[in-house]
Amino acid sequence: MTRSEKEVADFLKNLGIHWSYEHPIFVLDENQRPRLWTPDFYLISFGVYVEVCGSSSFDYDYRRKILDKNGHKVIFLHLYKESKMWMNHLMRYLEKITDYRTHRLSVILKKEN
Predict the structure, then answer these.
(1) Residue 81 to residue 76: CA distance in whole angstroms
(2) Domain ranges of the chain
(3) Which is it for strands 34-37 and 25-28: parallel, antiparallel or unpaired?
(4) For residues 113 and 99, which has the higher predicted lDDT (pLDDT)?
(5) What is the CATH code of the structural domain delimited by 3-112?
(6) 37: CB partners within 8 A, 6+ apart
(7) What is the DSSP letter of 24?
């Protein structure tokens, strides 16, 4: 675990958010080839992955595109350029994802009635 990943792990632990480290997920790449990727954290209670971005030289946009295309919810944290702002970013996106899921469920339940 990198220093940045350890910082995120400690933050999640302090909040009581349970996670799995490098939980593997199946994706199809841009050529429909099967791949197994391991985002840094899987937040179990939220059903969301977190990728800790550690370098400006890595193509995180490609990774985001493939994960989105495969329907995986992933929050990217750029600790190397966001300093302490990543914490607010993470919490804001967890809230957005939770709100979206609650809204979708209410739409589904209304259709049922």
Answers:
(1) 12
(2) 3-112
(3) antiparallel
(4) 99
(5) 3.40.960.10
(6) 24, 25, 27, 63, 67
(7) -
Q: 91-105 pLDDT, tens per residue?
A: 999 999 999 989 999
Q: Rounded to an integer, what distance in angstroms lies between the CA atom of residue 16 and that of residue 88? A: 16
Compute φ and ψ for 82, nearest 5 degrees. -105, -5
**Distance, CA of 87 to CA of 104 (rounded, Å):** 26
Nearest to 77 by CA among 66, 68, 87: 87
**Is the CA virtual torsion 20, 39, 25, 45 positive or negative?**
positive
Q: What is the pLDDT of residues 16-61, one digit of tens each?
A: 999 999 999 999 999 999 999 999 999 999 999 999 987 777 788 8
Hey, what are 55's tokens? Answer: 């370098």
